[in-house]
Amino acid sequence: MATQAFENGTLHRRTESREILSQSDRVNTTSHQHTHAHARRSRSLKVPGDVIAEAKTTGDRERLSGRSSSTRHRSPTRSESQATAERPTEKDIPEHVIPESRSVSSNSASHGAVSSASSKAVWNPEVKLIESTLSSLASRIQPPPLSAHTSGFKKALDISKLPAEVQHAVIMDDLLYVLVGTEGQYIRFHERYNPAIEVERLAGPEFRLTKGLDPSLRDITKNLLKMATYHLSVEAFVEQQSKPEYGTVNHALCAAMRTIVKEYLALISAMEYRMLTDPSFTLTVFSLETMTMAKKLMELNFLIVKLSNKEVAQPEDAEDSSSDFDKIMETLRANDGNINALNGIGASTTTSSINKGADVIKILTDRLYAVAGDPPARELLTFLLRESSKPYVKMLNLWLHRGIISDPFGEFLVKEQKGIRREKIDQDYTDEYWEKRYLIRKEALPSQIADTRTCEKILLAGKFLNVVRECGGVDASSETTDAPETIDDSRLLANIDVAYAHANSYLLSLLINTHGLAERLTSLKHYFFLDQADFFTSFVEVASHELKKPAKFVSTSKLQSLLDLTLRQPGSITAVDPFKEDLSVELNEVGLTEWLMRIVSVSGLDHTDSSAIKQLSFVPTDDRANEKDNKKTYLGVQALQFDFKIPFPLSLVISRKTILRYQLLFRHLVALKHIEQLLGSSWKDQAKSIGWTKRTANKKLHTYKARASNLRAKMLVFIQQVLYFSTSEVMEPNWVSLMNSIGSIETVDALMQRHVDFLDTCLKECMLTNAKLLKIMGKLTATCRMFSSYVNGLSRTLQSVEAKLSENDEDESIVKLQTLLDQYEQNFDHHLKMLMDGLNYYAATETVVLLSLCARLEVCINS
């Protein structure tokens, strides 16, 4: 027989074991107790009190636990001596109540029956503590066994033999026990119900009514028993969801459900009082009075089914898979490498199937919309939604206004990657800290803030405040006195907008005014775009001996010393630059064209997918450098590139990816300037060398010299036109546009995007993102470089050839010179024409600014 549970999960009341009375003693004792405990009830039912007593107290004597003190207040059982003294005689008991098996012999026979009954084994219940759990509302004692699993008790009287009035009384009394969770005499849990199985407890028990009950009473009782099923289901759900792993939103929901359960228990207590005091109180009235509460419990049961079963398992993304490793490393660091501290990490694989946080709010919201036409259900769900969302909105306000995540159970829409730290941000100022430290959980967002723009505002508002506070040492928290507390508050979106505007204005002012973003960008322009680059010309001159070496033999420290000396040269624009100490020299042993082709082949250098740029941002690696080691060796000037150290928080705007773009543009300009210098030195050599300047009588040799000079001049014009186009018609106009837009930008994210767009536009218009144009330009520049080296070594060859030839002689050597020159001319002209065709095509389809370069290169073709 199950024991009656106290309200709020308190201990079950232990009842004393009583001697099982014989049938005759039971009837005598019961008829006397009826006069005190059930007098009013018998009057209301208009049946003899001893009849009710016989039917009722047969079960009461055998009931192993009392009703909960919060719902039933029964008189204490008399002592055995009082029961014997006040026991009525047989004459006081109606004959139709006395069982046929009862003996009518003397008192000695009666006492013999009592002794015989007392010798049988009687179940003596004991309260046993169970293993404690982390759930604050979990039961601390073992549940009582079900009546189906116990034996040694006398069966209740056959209810079919009782009049309808008596059936009504005993069933109503049983219902009061069942509705608070305890089995009755005639209403029992179904045999297949097992409370030890959590799924069955959440679904609620089925009940089995005794046979022989009046059909009209059976129908009403079945309807009332649904309320008992829902009540036990809610109790089991509250106990389960109160465990820590279910999160604060579920905890708040359980607290709200407990409020409904308290109302339910108070209603059952009121129904019992009316049953004892109101003669007109019937099961029909009972059903009508509890109908509203039954609908509430039914709605709670529907939510329990939805919340207990997560329909779709959310896939874990790459960040989630890496977060387990981050947790392991974090735990090891915190416990000095103690491996035992890892126990429990990664063991809870069931949390992915738990509805918590935003999932719970989303389910409640969807259900609220579904029952919008049912006022009681809408009122209940609104109450549950508001109460359960309070912890979530508290986390939201803490993030929006202070930039802090307080989310121990992983419920909030913003997740923190703790493995990405800021200790080395000064040495390695990549934007990984900015982009991957905080991410949105896209798989579960509350409907109220699921809009993409709203989520972006929430993420950025807290991120701005958090990063500035952690890395800048500045607390930019905003004070709020009227923040919303629930998810359905009409001020929620306005609160997000206000927090987003505050964080943006603070960080934007910090970047532009406090840390001088415009001045830092101007300095980058001087160094990487070679604007007013007198320092670079001086640097190349003093470091020419070192830069002519193969890249792998160049001393970087020596180049850095020469660069520092050049930057401090009096009269140079860089001498007064406050950021010159942040400039450093690097050598990239991968050629510019090869490097760009790798990037373009992966992503096309699209600003929406900069993963390839990040992957190659630290090239060359040893493997990449050695890959082409045997095929091609680059000179120091071809591998030269600058790097620039950016302090936080300016590194948010001038990130590693943007520095890489600056380096690509810088190497492009340096390559053009280097070829221009080579061709210029060739012109100087031709102007000074006797082999070039001396008039020759041989017409073929004279024609050769003229053709070689013309080709060199054509190449020089080509290089100069491309260099001028890249600097004056691409970089400078886009730079002016960027600086003009900084003053009108309202958000930090827009500023970051505008800076990246500026660099991507420069790369695109300089033909560094188009694979076809890039290959053609690479071949043209290689031809110019090779021809310059070839021309520089012709002076002595021409003198020796001229000495051998007469006016009309034709030597084999002159034929070889002409053949080689023909190859250079054909190669250059062919690729120049291909470049012109490509420029015209892409100017019409992609970048119209390329038409200007086409017009300039017409000079080379026509010359």
UniProtKB/TrEMBL annotation:
Domain Gamma tubulin complex component C-terminal residues, every copy: 517-858
Biased composition (Polar residues): 20-32
InterPro entries: GCP, GCP_C, GCP_C_sf, GCP_N
One Pfam family named in its UniProt record: GCP_C_terminal
Biased composition (Basic residues): 33-44
Composition skew (Low complexity), residue ranges: 101-118
Region Disordered: start-end pairs: 1-118
Classification via Gene3D superfamilies: Gamma-tubulin complex, C-terminal domain (1.20.120.1900)
Compartments (UniProt record): Cytoplasm, Cytoskeleton, Microtubule organizing center
Keyword terms of this UniProt record: Cytoplasm, Cytoskeleton, Microtubule
Basic and acidic residues composition bias: residue spans: 87-99
Every Gamma tubulin complex component protein N-terminal domain range: 173-513
Family, per entry: Belongs to the TUBGCP family.
Record protein name field: Spindle pole body component
Source organism of this protein record: Myxozyma melibiosi
